[in-house]
Design brief:
Layout lengths: L12 E5 L4 H11 L5 E3 L11 H11 L3 E4 L7 H6 L1 H22 L3 E5 L28 H21 L3 E6 L1 E3 L12 H15 L3 E5 L5 E2 L1 E3 H14 L6 E3 L5 E2 H12 L4 E5 L14 H7 L7 H23 L3
Parallel strand pairs: 1-2, 1-3, 3-4, 4-5, 5-10, 6-9, 7-12
Antiparallel strand pairs: 8-11
Helix pairs in contact: 1-7, 2-4, 4-5, 6-8, 6-10, 8-10
Length: 326
Amino acid sequence: MPESPELDLSRVRVAVTGGRGFLGRALVRRLEREHPKSLDAPGSRDYDLRTERGVRGFYADLSPDVVIHLAAVVGGIGANRANPGRFFYENAVMGIQLVEHGRRHGLRKLVLIGTVCSYPKFTPAPFREDDLWAGYPEETNAPYGLAKKMLLVQSQAYRAQYDFPSIYLIPVNLYGPEDNFALESSHVIPAIVRKCVEAKLAGERRIVLWGDGSPTREFLYVDDAAEGIALAARRYDGAEPVNLGTGQEIRIRDLAEHIRAMTGFEGEIVWDASKPNGQPRRCLDTSRAARLFGFTAGTPLDEGLRRTCDWYLRNRAAVLRQADPV
């Protein structure tokens, strides 16, 4: 554990950017158990953090002591390929301004959330935080990954020059209930869940998935990610980036078979090898999080997938209206 004293979140005002998103909602629920003096989770309609005016208003109106920066412009491989410039600019400018004005505001802690997409394409698994600069990220999401990695550079530079208390966490791919199930922008688990369920209900005999199914991925249940962030906010105050994950990987092909069985879809899974696979492997070394602030993930993948599938089935009509508005 670090030598610095633990931050008592019940004595501070906390603000979560992106607090109405998938991870944000889970984190807000987790932080409520800490009973902070105030807990704000504004959305993009409240403050456009891509603009300096929005960032200034965020700090002036909420006057936070602790900020946890989750807000990001994100998506799967297709969305990253279609929006490389937007994903780079909006993520970079949002974070850079939030850090600078947080320094001026005198924050007691800023928690920056990075992305596993920042790691080099051919990083040896499991990914160690020291490998972050060993090469260029996977091309399909490199602009997004590099924009988020620049916040690590800024965080370390501000700590060195200003003694600014910011930390940088790198969560692996997240999943769980209330995820984004829009096919144009969703990540792999909600996309496969939706395709299997919809094909079964429509009586279709096959679904098509991108790539050849050979890459591996590691998945972190959203409530576990929220627990890790809350622990880091309380206990960690250092310059080193820290992975958040389970340390376990699964082939996409095997993942799809798990989800097919859970949803009861009996048709064929067709792999479209003309589409990109993305990074060949993703699996994190999670020892630093355990050592520095005592975090280990607690939700087995099968249990988390079951909860995700069950949630989608219970909320399918509302999800489809929101994901595919007329």
